Amino acid sequence: MARSQLQTSSDAENWEVQLRKGSLELAILATLWDGRHYGLEILRRLESDSDLLLSEGTVYPLLNRLRVLGLVDSEWVESDSGHPRKYYRLTAAGRRRALEMSRIWARFSASLSTLLAPLEKERK
Amino acid sequence: MTVPTDAQQQIDAYLEALRKGLRELSDPEARDIVEEIRSHILDKAAMAGEITNARVTATLSSLGSPQELARQYTTDDLLNRAQRARSPLLILRSLFRWASLSFGGFWVLLFSLVGYFLAGAFSLCALLKPLHPQTAGLWHLPDGDTYSLRLGFGPVPAGGREMLGWWIVPLGLIGGSGLALLTFHFGVWSIRQLWKPYRARKR
Fold first, then answer.
1. Which residue range forms the structural domain that includes residue A36?
2. Which residue in A18, A21, A39 is closest to B36 by CB distance?
């Protein structure tokens, strides 16, 4: 494979990683939209409903940051498994942020889709 | 839920390393994080049934190294505190951390250190002028046509000419304090405008 092709492929992968990282905050807020969840539930939803998860170790510090920013609340709840679990829920500010981010995302995605339509045809 | 001894030892070693990495945080905060990760490990390892040593190994591996995990928490914490900071020491500590993570951080740290050094030198020179009235001050030296800020501990430089006289006292104090303030705000601005977006990209 030519060197330039290798470079292009690596650039594209890099870009994809950045794109996933940039979307992870919105994805986590979205998983909490319907109620409270603990870390592993959030991870499992990210795995099953999206292709965003890069590393499990990324999600917990991010949840902590969202808590510090006041976008989520957390509480420890006893469970049947024998150990307590830390549950997260969106705060009012978190709900507002999630809605705002989702609005920006939808607008961004729609405008990009128009531009990408000719490329999509070519790809098929 | 029963955890085999070897699996428990693995979990304990991981959490101990994580706890060590979190020592910059307050005790309750670090304890909260360690307990959450313990809860995650136990839940994840038990997802497919019984907890085994192999399942714990796989769970720990998908979390990444405890040092890296701790670093994500502490860097976020430092960044959050630095954004609200009013302490030059906390800003400097944050800049040292940033410098260890990126080249941009290194340059901001370097500028800040030079800024604080010059601010300190001007202020010290102003304060020492009354003790060394003949030798402390801003000197012009004919050798190489250079300027030298001298604290007055050495002899009068041969052929040198003092530029400011007693004016070094107010100018040194005002200039030194101003430069220190400017350097502090440069550090805060860099953290907010440069490091925060950088951190968001690297996360």
1. 24-123
2. A39
